Automatic annotation (TrEMBL):
GO terms for cellular component: glutamyl-tRNA(Gln) amidotransferase complex; mitochondrion. GO terms for biological process: translation. It holds the Pfam family Amidase. This is glutaminyl-tRNA synthase (glutamine-hydrolyzing). It comes from freshwater metagenome. Residues 25-474 form the Amidase domain.
Length: 501
Protein backbone atom coordinates (compact mmCIF):
# COMPACT_ATOMS: atom_id res chain seq x y z
CA UNK A 1 0.00 0.00 0.00
CA UNK A 2 1.32 3.47 -0.90
CA UNK A 3 1.98 6.02 1.85
CA UNK A 4 -1.56 6.81 2.93
CA UNK A 5 -0.52 10.07 4.58
CA UNK A 6 -0.18 11.39 1.00
CA UNK A 7 -3.78 10.51 0.24
CA UNK A 8 -6.41 13.22 0.15
CA UNK A 9 -9.24 13.11 2.65
CA UNK A 10 -11.55 12.10 -0.21
CA UNK A 11 -9.32 9.14 -1.04
CA UNK A 12 -9.13 8.11 2.59
CA UNK A 13 -12.91 8.42 2.98
CA UNK A 14 -13.50 6.22 -0.08
CA UNK A 15 -11.04 3.59 1.15
CA UNK A 16 -12.60 3.61 4.61
CA UNK A 17 -16.15 3.32 3.26
CA UNK A 18 -15.15 0.35 1.09
CA UNK A 19 -13.26 -1.23 4.04
CA UNK A 20 -10.09 -1.25 1.94
CA UNK A 21 -8.60 0.66 4.86
CA UNK A 22 -9.45 0.84 8.55
CA UNK A 23 -9.61 4.04 10.55
CA UNK A 24 -7.02 2.57 12.92
CA UNK A 25 -4.60 2.13 10.01
CA UNK A 26 -5.23 5.67 8.73
CA UNK A 27 -4.89 7.18 12.19
CA UNK A 28 -1.75 5.22 13.08
CA UNK A 29 -0.09 6.28 9.82
CA UNK A 30 -0.68 9.95 10.61
CA UNK A 31 0.41 9.55 14.24
CA UNK A 32 3.62 7.95 13.00
CA UNK A 33 4.11 10.82 10.56
CA UNK A 34 3.68 13.33 13.38
CA UNK A 35 6.19 11.41 15.52
CA UNK A 36 8.70 11.42 12.66
CA UNK A 37 8.37 15.06 11.62
CA UNK A 38 6.90 17.33 14.26
CA UNK A 39 10.21 17.88 16.03
CA UNK A 40 11.16 19.69 12.81
CA UNK A 41 7.89 21.43 11.91
CA UNK A 42 6.29 22.09 15.30
CA UNK A 43 2.68 21.94 14.07
CA UNK A 44 1.16 20.63 17.29
CA UNK A 45 0.76 21.97 20.82
CA UNK A 46 -1.10 18.95 22.22
CA UNK A 47 -1.73 15.40 21.06
CA UNK A 48 -5.00 13.51 21.45
CA UNK A 49 -4.50 10.58 23.80
CA UNK A 50 -7.54 8.66 22.58
CA UNK A 51 -7.07 8.93 18.80
CA UNK A 52 -6.65 5.19 18.26
CA UNK A 53 -9.51 4.36 20.61
CA UNK A 54 -11.76 6.72 18.64
CA UNK A 55 -10.61 5.12 15.39
CA UNK A 56 -11.38 1.64 16.74
CA UNK A 57 -14.86 2.83 17.67
CA UNK A 58 -15.48 4.08 14.14
CA UNK A 59 -14.30 0.78 12.67
CA UNK A 60 -16.72 -1.09 14.94
CA UNK A 61 -19.61 1.14 13.87
CA UNK A 62 -18.78 0.52 10.22
CA UNK A 63 -18.50 -3.23 10.76
CA UNK A 64 -21.90 -3.19 12.46
CA UNK A 65 -23.43 -1.55 9.39
CA UNK A 66 -24.18 1.80 11.01
CA UNK A 67 -24.79 4.76 8.70
CA UNK A 68 -21.74 7.02 8.93
CA UNK A 69 -20.79 10.44 7.65
CA UNK A 70 -18.61 10.94 4.57
CA UNK A 71 -15.60 11.78 6.76
CA UNK A 72 -16.11 9.07 9.40
CA UNK A 73 -12.74 7.70 10.49
CA UNK A 74 -10.69 10.40 8.74
CA UNK A 75 -8.04 12.05 10.98
CA UNK A 76 -8.18 15.80 11.62
CA UNK A 77 -6.16 18.47 13.45
CA UNK A 78 -7.85 21.26 15.44
CA UNK A 79 -6.52 24.80 15.88
CA UNK A 80 -5.92 25.46 19.57
CA UNK A 81 -8.40 28.34 19.58
CA UNK A 82 -11.36 25.90 19.73
CA UNK A 83 -12.42 24.52 23.10
CA UNK A 84 -12.04 20.76 23.49
CA UNK A 85 -13.22 19.02 26.65
CA UNK A 86 -10.60 16.26 26.39
CA UNK A 87 -7.52 18.29 25.36
CA UNK A 88 -6.02 21.43 26.84
CA UNK A 89 -6.95 24.64 25.06
CA UNK A 90 -4.52 27.54 25.33
CA UNK A 91 -5.06 29.75 22.23
CA UNK A 92 -1.28 29.64 22.00
CA UNK A 93 -0.93 31.67 25.22
CA UNK A 94 0.87 31.02 28.49
CA UNK A 95 -1.98 32.69 30.32
CA UNK A 96 -4.12 29.60 29.54
CA UNK A 97 -1.38 27.00 29.95
CA UNK A 98 -2.87 23.69 31.05
CA UNK A 99 -6.50 24.87 30.85
CA UNK A 100 -8.98 22.08 30.14
CA UNK A 101 -12.35 23.47 29.00
CA UNK A 102 -15.52 22.02 30.53
CA UNK A 103 -17.24 21.86 27.13
CA UNK A 104 -16.65 21.45 23.39
CA UNK A 105 -16.97 24.19 20.81
CA UNK A 106 -19.92 23.60 18.49
CA UNK A 107 -17.56 22.90 15.57
CA UNK A 108 -15.75 20.32 17.70
CA UNK A 109 -19.06 18.71 18.67
CA UNK A 110 -20.06 18.51 14.99
CA UNK A 111 -16.76 16.87 14.09
CA UNK A 112 -17.21 14.33 16.87
CA UNK A 113 -20.75 13.61 15.66
CA UNK A 114 -19.31 13.05 12.17
CA UNK A 115 -16.88 10.49 13.67
CA UNK A 116 -13.71 12.25 12.56
CA UNK A 117 -10.62 11.27 14.56
CA UNK A 118 -8.84 14.08 16.42
CA UNK A 119 -5.05 13.97 16.19
CA UNK A 120 -4.35 16.98 18.39
CA UNK A 121 -4.38 20.76 18.78
CA UNK A 122 -2.27 22.87 16.44
CA UNK A 123 0.06 25.74 17.23
CA UNK A 124 -0.95 29.34 16.59
CA UNK A 125 0.01 32.93 17.22
CA UNK A 126 -1.14 33.84 20.71
CA UNK A 127 -4.89 34.56 20.70
CA UNK A 128 -4.64 34.56 16.88
CA UNK A 129 -2.60 37.78 16.86
CA UNK A 130 0.10 37.37 14.24
CA UNK A 131 0.91 36.45 10.67
CA UNK A 132 3.77 33.98 11.13
CA UNK A 133 3.07 31.71 14.16
CA UNK A 134 6.19 33.21 15.73
CA UNK A 135 4.04 34.84 18.41
CA UNK A 136 2.98 31.54 19.97
CA UNK A 137 3.66 31.38 23.70
CA UNK A 138 5.17 27.90 23.27
CA UNK A 139 7.26 27.43 20.13
CA UNK A 140 7.69 28.54 16.54
CA UNK A 141 6.08 26.52 13.75
CA UNK A 142 8.11 26.13 10.55
CA UNK A 143 7.05 25.90 6.93
CA UNK A 144 7.34 22.33 5.56
CA UNK A 145 8.46 23.74 2.19
CA UNK A 146 11.48 25.42 3.78
CA UNK A 147 12.15 25.08 7.50
CA UNK A 148 13.78 28.52 7.59
CA UNK A 149 10.49 30.14 6.48
CA UNK A 150 7.28 31.06 8.28
CA UNK A 151 4.14 29.00 7.65
CA UNK A 152 1.97 32.10 7.99
CA UNK A 153 -0.35 32.90 10.82
CA UNK A 154 -2.14 32.90 13.02
CA UNK A 155 -3.08 29.40 11.90
CA UNK A 156 0.37 28.28 10.81
CA UNK A 157 0.10 25.09 12.85
CA UNK A 158 -3.00 23.84 11.03
CA UNK A 159 -1.64 24.74 7.59
CA UNK A 160 1.78 23.22 8.32
CA UNK A 161 0.21 19.99 9.62
CA UNK A 162 -1.76 19.57 6.39
CA UNK A 163 1.18 20.54 4.16
CA UNK A 164 3.55 18.18 5.99
CA UNK A 165 1.12 15.25 5.55
CA UNK A 166 0.62 15.03 9.30
CA UNK A 167 -3.14 15.42 8.82
CA UNK A 168 -5.39 15.37 5.74
CA UNK A 169 -7.78 17.88 7.31
CA UNK A 170 -7.49 20.74 9.77
CA UNK A 171 -9.66 23.43 11.30
CA UNK A 172 -8.49 27.03 11.42
CA UNK A 173 -9.91 30.43 12.28
CA UNK A 174 -9.70 33.57 10.18
CA UNK A 175 -9.96 37.10 11.61
CA UNK A 176 -7.98 38.95 8.96
CA UNK A 177 -6.51 36.16 6.84
CA UNK A 178 -5.38 33.56 9.39
CA UNK A 179 -6.63 30.67 7.24
CA UNK A 180 -5.97 32.07 3.76
CA UNK A 181 -2.46 33.51 4.26
CA UNK A 182 -1.05 30.30 5.84
CA UNK A 183 -2.73 28.32 3.06
CA UNK A 184 -0.95 30.49 0.50
CA UNK A 185 2.41 30.06 2.27
CA UNK A 186 2.09 26.26 2.55
CA UNK A 187 0.45 25.33 -0.76
CA UNK A 188 -2.80 24.24 0.88
CA UNK A 189 -6.44 25.20 0.35
CA UNK A 190 -8.09 27.34 3.01
CA UNK A 191 -11.55 28.90 3.23
CA UNK A 192 -12.92 31.70 5.37
CA UNK A 193 -16.70 31.15 5.22
CA UNK A 194 -19.35 33.87 5.25
CA UNK A 195 -19.44 35.49 8.68
CA UNK A 196 -22.02 33.58 10.71
CA UNK A 197 -21.94 30.56 8.43
CA UNK A 198 -19.98 28.48 10.96
CA UNK A 199 -20.61 28.67 14.69
CA UNK A 200 -18.18 30.62 16.87
CA UNK A 201 -19.53 29.11 20.10
CA UNK A 202 -16.59 27.73 22.05
CA UNK A 203 -14.02 29.60 19.96
CA UNK A 204 -11.80 31.83 22.09
CA UNK A 205 -12.64 35.27 20.74
CA UNK A 206 -10.15 37.72 19.29
CA UNK A 207 -12.39 40.21 17.45
CA UNK A 208 -15.98 39.06 17.58
CA UNK A 209 -17.20 40.95 14.51
CA UNK A 210 -14.40 39.50 12.38
CA UNK A 211 -13.64 35.95 13.62
CA UNK A 212 -14.77 32.98 11.54
CA UNK A 213 -13.89 29.27 11.70
CA UNK A 214 -13.06 27.43 8.48
CA UNK A 215 -11.43 24.39 6.83
CA UNK A 216 -7.82 23.79 5.73
CA UNK A 217 -6.99 20.87 3.42
CA UNK A 218 -4.92 19.98 0.36
CA UNK A 219 -7.70 19.96 -2.26
CA UNK A 220 -10.84 21.95 -2.97
CA UNK A 221 -13.07 18.87 -2.65
CA UNK A 222 -11.62 18.00 0.76
CA UNK A 223 -12.27 21.56 1.89
CA UNK A 224 -15.87 21.27 0.71
CA UNK A 225 -16.34 17.98 2.57
CA UNK A 226 -15.14 19.57 5.80
CA UNK A 227 -17.14 22.76 5.24
CA UNK A 228 -20.31 20.70 4.88
CA UNK A 229 -19.70 19.14 8.30
CA UNK A 230 -19.00 22.32 10.26
CA UNK A 231 -21.46 24.77 8.64
CA UNK A 232 -24.98 25.46 9.81
CA UNK A 233 -27.06 27.41 12.29
CA UNK A 234 -26.22 27.25 15.98
CA UNK A 235 -28.67 28.78 18.50
CA UNK A 236 -25.80 29.10 20.98
CA UNK A 237 -24.12 31.67 18.69
CA UNK A 238 -26.08 34.91 18.35
CA UNK A 239 -24.24 35.74 15.10
CA UNK A 240 -25.05 32.37 13.50
CA UNK A 241 -27.05 32.61 10.27
CA UNK A 242 -30.24 30.47 10.14
CA UNK A 243 -30.15 30.37 6.32
CA UNK A 244 -29.87 26.86 4.78
CA UNK A 245 -26.54 26.36 3.02
CA UNK A 246 -25.76 24.85 -0.35
CA UNK A 247 -24.10 21.44 -0.49
CA UNK A 248 -20.47 22.51 -0.98
CA UNK A 249 -19.20 19.04 -1.98
CA UNK A 250 -21.76 18.78 -4.77
CA UNK A 251 -20.68 22.21 -6.03
CA UNK A 252 -17.02 21.15 -5.98
CA UNK A 253 -17.80 17.97 -7.89
CA UNK A 254 -19.81 19.86 -10.49
CA UNK A 255 -17.06 22.45 -10.89
CA UNK A 256 -14.41 19.79 -11.44
CA UNK A 257 -16.40 18.50 -14.42
CA UNK A 258 -16.95 21.83 -16.17
CA UNK A 259 -15.59 21.89 -19.71
CA UNK A 260 -14.30 25.44 -19.32
CA UNK A 261 -15.03 28.71 -17.48
CA UNK A 262 -17.65 30.01 -19.90
CA UNK A 263 -20.18 32.26 -18.17
CA UNK A 264 -17.87 33.19 -15.30
CA UNK A 265 -17.36 36.91 -14.73
CA UNK A 266 -14.19 37.65 -12.76
CA UNK A 267 -13.11 40.95 -11.25
CA UNK A 268 -9.46 41.85 -10.63
CA UNK A 269 -9.32 44.39 -7.80
CA UNK A 270 -7.03 47.24 -8.79
CA UNK A 271 -6.27 48.23 -5.17
CA UNK A 272 -5.00 44.71 -4.38
CA UNK A 273 -2.33 44.91 -7.11
CA UNK A 274 0.10 47.00 -5.08
CA UNK A 275 3.76 47.83 -5.67
CA UNK A 276 4.71 45.64 -2.73
CA UNK A 277 3.68 42.40 -4.44
CA UNK A 278 6.61 40.05 -5.05
CA UNK A 279 7.56 39.62 -8.71
CA UNK A 280 6.96 35.85 -8.71
CA UNK A 281 3.57 36.26 -7.04
CA UNK A 282 2.58 38.84 -9.66
CA UNK A 283 3.80 36.56 -12.46
CA UNK A 284 1.77 33.57 -11.26
CA UNK A 285 -1.29 35.77 -10.73
CA UNK A 286 -1.06 37.22 -14.24
CA UNK A 287 -0.71 33.69 -15.62
CA UNK A 288 -3.84 32.63 -13.72
CA UNK A 289 -5.77 35.57 -15.14
CA UNK A 290 -4.58 34.68 -18.66
CA UNK A 291 -5.63 31.05 -18.11
CA UNK A 292 -9.12 32.13 -17.01
CA UNK A 293 -9.48 34.33 -20.07
CA UNK A 294 -8.32 31.53 -22.37
CA UNK A 295 -10.90 29.22 -20.79
CA UNK A 296 -13.79 31.55 -21.56
CA UNK A 297 -14.07 33.67 -18.42
CA UNK A 298 -14.78 37.37 -18.73
CA UNK A 299 -12.13 39.27 -16.73
CA UNK A 300 -12.60 42.93 -15.83
CA UNK A 301 -10.75 45.40 -13.62
CA UNK A 302 -12.61 46.49 -10.50
CA UNK A 303 -12.02 49.78 -8.73
CA UNK A 304 -12.60 49.50 -4.97
CA UNK A 305 -11.34 52.88 -3.76
CA UNK A 306 -11.84 52.32 -0.04
CA UNK A 307 -9.75 49.13 0.07
CA UNK A 308 -6.79 51.48 0.43
CA UNK A 309 -7.86 52.13 4.01
CA UNK A 310 -8.69 48.54 4.95
CA UNK A 311 -5.50 47.75 6.87
CA UNK A 312 -5.73 50.97 8.90
CA UNK A 313 -9.39 50.39 9.73
CA UNK A 314 -8.78 46.75 10.62
CA UNK A 315 -5.95 47.56 13.01
CA UNK A 316 -8.26 49.86 14.94
CA UNK A 317 -11.31 47.59 14.99
CA UNK A 318 -9.45 44.39 15.85
CA UNK A 319 -7.40 45.78 18.78
CA UNK A 320 -10.47 47.50 20.18
CA UNK A 321 -12.48 44.28 20.19
CA UNK A 322 -9.48 42.28 21.42
CA UNK A 323 -9.01 44.70 24.32
CA UNK A 324 -12.57 43.99 25.39
CA UNK A 325 -12.49 40.23 24.79
CA UNK A 326 -9.19 39.65 26.58
CA UNK A 327 -10.25 41.57 29.70
CA UNK A 328 -11.62 38.28 31.05
CA UNK A 329 -8.08 36.92 31.47
CA UNK A 330 -7.57 38.61 34.81
CA UNK A 331 -6.12 35.83 37.07
CA UNK A 332 -9.33 35.74 39.11
CA UNK A 333 -11.60 33.21 37.40
CA UNK A 334 -9.37 30.79 35.51
CA UNK A 335 -5.97 30.43 33.89
CA UNK A 336 -2.59 31.62 35.09
CA UNK A 337 -2.22 33.49 38.39
CA UNK A 338 0.97 35.29 39.40
CA UNK A 339 1.03 36.59 42.96
CA UNK A 340 3.66 39.26 43.73
CA UNK A 341 5.44 39.24 47.09
CA UNK A 342 4.07 41.15 50.06
CA UNK A 343 0.39 41.97 50.40
CA UNK A 344 -0.69 42.46 46.78
CA UNK A 345 -4.09 43.78 45.83
CA UNK A 346 -6.27 42.17 43.18
CA UNK A 347 -5.00 44.82 40.77
CA UNK A 348 -1.40 43.87 41.60
CA UNK A 349 -2.08 40.18 40.93
CA UNK A 350 -3.92 41.00 37.71
CA UNK A 351 -1.09 43.21 36.46
CA UNK A 352 1.61 40.65 37.28
CA UNK A 353 -0.40 37.83 35.68
CA UNK A 354 -1.10 39.69 32.47
CA UNK A 355 2.51 40.88 32.28
CA UNK A 356 3.85 37.32 32.43
CA UNK A 357 0.99 35.55 30.64
CA UNK A 358 0.67 37.78 27.57
CA UNK A 359 3.30 38.11 24.86
CA UNK A 360 4.50 41.33 23.25
CA UNK A 361 2.08 41.28 20.30
CA UNK A 362 -0.94 40.75 22.54
CA UNK A 363 0.15 43.55 24.86
CA UNK A 364 0.72 45.83 21.88
CA UNK A 365 -2.78 45.29 20.53
CA UNK A 366 -4.49 45.53 23.92
CA UNK A 367 -2.83 48.90 24.52
CA UNK A 368 -3.75 50.13 21.04
CA UNK A 369 -7.34 48.94 21.37
CA UNK A 370 -7.83 50.39 24.83
CA UNK A 371 -6.55 53.73 23.60
CA UNK A 372 -8.86 53.66 20.56
CA UNK A 373 -11.86 53.06 22.84
CA UNK A 374 -10.91 55.59 25.50
CA UNK A 375 -12.94 58.72 26.23
CA UNK A 376 -12.31 61.46 23.71
CA UNK A 377 -10.82 59.10 21.11
CA UNK A 378 -13.65 56.66 20.36
CA UNK A 379 -15.23 58.71 17.56
CA UNK A 380 -11.91 59.74 16.06
CA UNK A 381 -10.52 56.21 15.85
CA UNK A 382 -12.88 53.28 16.41
CA UNK A 383 -15.96 55.11 15.14
CA UNK A 384 -14.16 56.32 12.02
CA UNK A 385 -12.81 52.83 11.34
CA UNK A 386 -16.32 51.43 11.42
CA UNK A 387 -17.42 54.04 8.87
CA UNK A 388 -14.57 52.96 6.59
CA UNK A 389 -15.71 49.37 7.07
CA UNK A 390 -19.15 50.32 5.74
CA UNK A 391 -17.56 51.96 2.69
CA UNK A 392 -15.54 48.79 2.01
CA UNK A 393 -18.72 46.73 2.22
CA UNK A 394 -20.30 49.09 -0.32
CA UNK A 395 -17.29 48.64 -2.63
CA UNK A 396 -17.87 44.88 -2.55
CA UNK A 397 -21.59 45.33 -3.23
CA UNK A 398 -20.83 47.48 -6.26
CA UNK A 399 -18.24 44.99 -7.51
CA UNK A 400 -20.50 41.96 -7.20
CA UNK A 401 -23.17 43.74 -9.21
CA UNK A 402 -20.76 43.37 -12.14
CA UNK A 403 -18.96 40.07 -11.50
CA UNK A 404 -19.45 36.62 -9.96
CA UNK A 405 -16.07 36.42 -8.24
CA UNK A 406 -13.27 38.78 -7.27
CA UNK A 407 -9.66 37.59 -7.35
CA UNK A 408 -6.31 38.72 -6.01
CA UNK A 409 -3.12 37.15 -4.70
CA UNK A 410 -3.80 35.59 -1.29
CA UNK A 411 -0.66 37.25 0.07
CA UNK A 412 1.70 39.86 -1.41
CA UNK A 413 4.72 37.57 -1.02
CA UNK A 414 5.64 33.94 -0.62
CA UNK A 415 6.62 32.68 2.84
CA UNK A 416 9.14 35.06 4.37
CA UNK A 417 12.15 33.98 6.47
CA UNK A 418 11.53 33.37 10.16
CA UNK A 419 12.57 36.40 12.16
CA UNK A 420 12.50 38.79 9.21
CA UNK A 421 9.41 40.70 10.39
CA UNK A 422 9.28 39.70 14.04
CA UNK A 423 10.54 43.06 15.30
CA UNK A 424 8.68 45.13 12.71
CA UNK A 425 4.94 44.98 13.50
CA UNK A 426 3.97 47.39 10.73
CA UNK A 427 5.69 45.23 8.10
CA UNK A 428 3.96 42.14 9.50
CA UNK A 429 0.56 43.87 9.49
CA UNK A 430 1.03 45.14 5.92
CA UNK A 431 1.20 41.53 4.74
CA UNK A 432 -2.53 41.20 5.43
CA UNK A 433 -3.58 43.82 2.88
CA UNK A 434 -5.13 41.36 0.42
CA UNK A 435 -7.08 39.30 2.97
CA UNK A 436 -8.40 41.92 5.41
CA UNK A 437 -11.16 43.41 3.21
CA UNK A 438 -12.95 40.03 3.14
CA UNK A 439 -13.22 39.96 6.94
CA UNK A 440 -14.33 43.58 7.19
CA UNK A 441 -17.16 42.82 4.76
CA UNK A 442 -18.07 39.41 6.23
CA UNK A 443 -17.93 37.69 2.83
CA UNK A 444 -16.38 34.28 2.03
CA UNK A 445 -12.87 33.87 0.64
CA UNK A 446 -10.72 30.96 -0.53
CA UNK A 447 -6.97 30.63 -1.00
CA UNK A 448 -6.13 28.18 -3.77
CA UNK A 449 -2.56 27.20 -4.75
CA UNK A 450 -1.77 28.42 -8.28
CA UNK A 451 1.86 27.40 -8.67
CA UNK A 452 5.33 28.09 -7.32
CA UNK A 453 7.15 31.42 -7.47
CA UNK A 454 10.08 31.10 -9.90
CA UNK A 455 12.56 33.00 -7.73
CA UNK A 456 12.26 30.84 -4.60
CA UNK A 457 10.20 27.76 -5.52
CA UNK A 458 7.62 28.48 -2.80
CA UNK A 459 3.83 28.24 -3.15
CA UNK A 460 1.71 31.14 -4.35
CA UNK A 461 -1.97 31.46 -3.45
CA UNK A 462 -4.87 32.76 -5.53
CA UNK A 463 -7.64 34.37 -3.47
CA UNK A 464 -11.24 33.93 -4.64
CA UNK A 465 -13.91 36.17 -3.10
CA UNK A 466 -17.68 35.70 -3.39
CA UNK A 467 -20.73 37.59 -2.12
CA UNK A 468 -22.06 36.84 1.36
CA UNK A 469 -24.01 33.55 1.54
CA UNK A 470 -22.56 32.48 -1.83
CA UNK A 471 -19.78 30.26 -0.44
CA UNK A 472 -20.72 27.58 -2.97
CA UNK A 473 -19.31 29.76 -5.76
CA UNK A 474 -15.85 29.35 -4.24
CA UNK A 475 -16.12 25.58 -4.46
CA UNK A 476 -17.64 25.43 -7.92
CA UNK A 477 -15.12 27.72 -9.57
CA UNK A 478 -12.24 26.87 -7.24
CA UNK A 479 -12.60 23.21 -8.19
CA UNK A 480 -12.64 24.13 -11.89
CA UNK A 481 -9.50 26.25 -11.50
CA UNK A 482 -7.76 23.52 -9.50
CA UNK A 483 -8.35 21.11 -12.38
CA UNK A 484 -7.00 23.64 -14.89
CA UNK A 485 -3.88 24.24 -12.78
CA UNK A 486 -3.30 20.48 -12.58
CA UNK A 487 -3.69 20.10 -16.34
CA UNK A 488 -1.32 23.00 -16.96
CA UNK A 489 1.37 21.95 -14.50
CA UNK A 490 0.96 18.17 -14.53
CA UNK A 491 0.39 18.08 -10.76
CA UNK A 492 -1.04 20.07 -7.89
CA UNK A 493 1.28 22.20 -5.79
CA UNK A 494 1.24 20.01 -2.68
CA UNK A 495 2.41 17.00 -4.69
CA UNK A 496 5.74 18.79 -5.26
CA UNK A 497 6.60 19.35 -1.60
CA UNK A 498 10.39 18.89 -1.26
CA UNK A 499 11.56 16.19 1.12
CA UNK A 500 12.63 18.56 3.87
CA UNK A 501 10.53 16.74 6.47
Amino acid sequence: MSDITRWSASQLAHALASTELSSVEATQAHLDRIDATDHLVGSFLARAEDALATARGVDKKRAAGEKLSALAGVPIAIKDVLCTSDMVTTAGSRILEGWLPPYDATVVAKLRAADTVFLGKTNMDEFAMGSSTEHSGYHVTKNPWDLTRAPGGSGGGSAAAVAAFQAPLAIGSDTGGSIRQPAAFTGTVGVKPTYGGVSRYGVIALASSLDQVGPVTRTVRDTALLHDVIAGHDPQDSTSIPTPWAHMTAEADEGANLADLSGLRVGVVKQLQTEGIQAGVKQRFDEAVALMTAQGAEVVEIDAPHFEYAVAAYYLILPAEASSNLAKFDSVRFGLRVTPEGNPTVEDVMSATRDRGFGDEVKRRIILGTYALSAGYYDAYYGSAQKVRTLIQQDFTSAFARVDLLISPSAPTTAFPLGEKLDDPLAMWAGDLTTIPVNLAGIPGMSLPMGLAPEDGLPVGLQLMAPAYEDHRLYRWGSALERLFRERDGSLVYENLPEVV
